Amino acid sequence: MKCKIKSQKKVATLSTKGLAMYQHAKIVQAQGRSKSNYYLIFHKNRYINTIKADELKQNSFIKRAFDNGIVIHGDHPAIYELTNDSIFPCSKPRQVMDRSLKMQPNIEQLIILSYFDQVIDSAKIHNEFIKTARTFLQNGKRQKAYTALTLLLQMEPHHHYAKDMVNDVAFVDSHMKPEELEFYTPLDINRLKNLFKEQNRTLDYLILQTHRLTNRFSQQAWDAFLPQLKTYPTSVQRLTLLSMYKHKPALMNYEVFSDALLSVVTSDEYIKLVLHPTFNHSIEPKQFLSQLKQSSNRTKYQIFQKRSHSFDDRIQDFDNETKEIAIRIIIESLLDTTEIDTILEWIESKQDNLSYTGALQQIKQLQEDPDKQETLAELYKKFHAYSKAIACYKWVMDLDPTNEAVNKQLITLLKEQDQTEEAKAYQQQFIQLVKYEQ
Question: What are phi and psi of 92, to 5 degrees?
């Protein structure tokens, strides 16, 4: 997935690499062309700012988020939802701090400020918590002062001044409310699951279920995950499932995951997945043929060159007709670029009696016969090797420019291959030659 940031009037497109959800922040990691790391920081799904950092400070909020939070590797609907169709402005750290200070005393703004201890001196951030706590105390808001200090101690447990203030007699009756603890403190997975459902935090719930599936698959987590994933565009479903598979290939052992992934991938990806040695599910032969036919010639050539055994294993349970079709699809993709001897050797290694082996052997024989190029062209056409067929027809036309039957075949084939200009040229050339002959 891609996202865009704007800095000093310049827009840069970044490739997203993952997401961390920690407390009530979401951080999207992305990379630029130079592989520099950027971190787009969101609070309650609201964009705050972007930080560029190739090395994270120990114990910085971002470092803790990726070490201790719920981390998603690769693409995900949450990244799509947070970053889609937006250009995110980048502010300097000083501007982030100034915005926060203008809104004080405000606990939520302090929490947002704490996200930026990668680029703002943590001592300054801690000092703002202390100043805000004092302001609350002066205004008689003892509970809020206690909350500010408690949150500071979560970030910096050894902050002596905050400890002394919390232990002051003025806070004897104060405590963090349960909902505040749940709001700000990382919880265990089961508590988070219940909390997100209760608060209808659907995006957070989807992130959590993805995390659960890539750590330990369960049908319950899958049943919660899939319906929500299907609400997103197919392209997002594909990227998400591929990212999950890349992070944890063992997910393909579960047929429900395999079926979902195979239903959204490209033809090339489908073939690569089902020919993987560890793929152990049955597949529908018709679907396999359809995907194989639509796959790129590069994929077919890789089967021919590197994955022949996997291909044979995959089609071994197909009926003979389907098996023949599958092999023929590979052959047809090769004829324009591969020596016929090499193709015949490949067929022989399969020890299958193919109905079209004789036609391929005939192609081999006719290749060396200049008088049989028209017949050879017809054979090539049967295998959809149209470039070879065109070359044969051109050979005949070079020897016999007034051969009307071959000229028509050549022009028709050129038009079918969208080579209309060349078809017109041969047509005009033939007309002129016929006139001259007359």
Answer: -75, 150
Torsion angles phi and psi, residue 24, rounded to 5: -115, 25
354: left (phi over 0), alpha (psi -120 to 50) or beta: beta
Task: Name which of 142, 143, 188, 146 is nearest 167 in CA terms.
Answer: 146
* Backbone dihedral angles phi then psi of residue 11, each to the nearest 5 degrees: -100, 130
Nearest by Cα to 393 from 406, 383, 380, 379: 406
CA angle, residues 248, 251, 256, in degrees to nearest 5: 155
34: tokens are 């130079």
CB 285 within 8 A of CB 318: yes
Give 410's contacts (C-beta < 8 A, 6+ positions apart).
390, 393, 394, 397, 423, 426
Helices 320-334 and 340-350 cross at an angle (nearest 10°) of 160
Length of the chain (residues): 438
The domain spans of the chain are: 2-89, 93-184, 385-438
What token pair was written down for 342? 């090499």
* CA separation for the pair 139, 44 (Å, rounded): 28
Which phi and psi (to 5°) does residue 44 adopt?
50, 40
User: Please, what's the b/e burial string for 15-43 (b: 16 or more CB within 10 A of its CB; e: otherwise)?
Assistant: ebbbbbbbbbbbbbbbeeeeeebbbbbbb
C-alpha to C-alpha distance for 282 and 34, rounded to whole angstroms: 43
Given the candidates 1.10.3470, 1.10.4030, 1.25.40, 2.40.30, the CATH classification of the domain at 385-438 is 1.25.40
Question: Do the Cβ atoms of 239 and 1 come closer than 8 Å?
Answer: yes
| Distance from chain centroid for Cα 60 | 29
Amino acid of residue 14: L
Q: What average pLDDT does the chain have? A: 90
| Residue pLDDT, tens place only, 49-79 | 999 998 999 989 999 999 989 999 999 999 9
pLDDT of residue 428: 86
Query: Could you say which DSSP state residue 273 is in?
Result: H
Least confident of 72-76, 184-188, 377-381: 184-188
Please work out, in degrees rounded to the nearest 5, the angle formed at the alpha carbon of residue 141 by the alpha carbons of 136 and 143. 105
Those residues with Cβ within 8 angstroms of residue 226's Cβ, 6 or more apart along the chain or in another chain = 256, 260
Say if CB 414 and CB 422 are below 8 A apart: yes
pLDDT digits (tens, 9 = 90+) for 394-438: 999 888 888 888 989 999 999 999 999 988 988 888 787 766 665
For residue 223, what are its two tokens?
């049943």
